[in-house]
Amino acid sequence: VQLVESGGGLVQPGGSLRLSCVASGFTFSRYTMSWYRQAPGKEREVVAQIGSTGVSTNYADSVKGRFTISRANAKNTVYLQMNSLKPEDTAEYYCKGIDYWGQGTQVTVSS
Fold first, then answer.
1. How far from 49 is each of 14, 15, 109, CA to CA, in Å?
2. What one-character-per-residue DSSP string does 35-58 give?
3. Which of 11, 13, 31 lies closest to 105 in space, CA to CA?
4. What's the pLDDT tens digit per position in 39-81?
5. Please, are residues 19 and 36 in contact by the beta-carbon 8 Å criterion?
């Protein structure tokens, strides 16, 4: 199993980023996928989840209305569209599928 995130970077407050996670080694379309984040000195927290078909989604209160999770099962890919970014969104962002984690992608929100 492999999960590879991309799309992180440095962005100004109010800006947007789109993270991607490409999965391999399992039947992607059968599983719920999640995005987590971990800021320095803090515990890893779930940001968003999406069901296997893409119909069901859940978000942390801190990102509701700003972040959107989606998936393309034909591409074995899950996305996280992040809008109206705030400095407190700065963290390493991880993709999770089943019990497997990606290596993470850094998101830094700063002026």
1. 23, 22, 22
2. EEEE-TTS--EEEEEE-TTS--EE
3. 11
4. 999 999 999 999 999 999 999 999 999 999 999 999 999 999 9
5. no
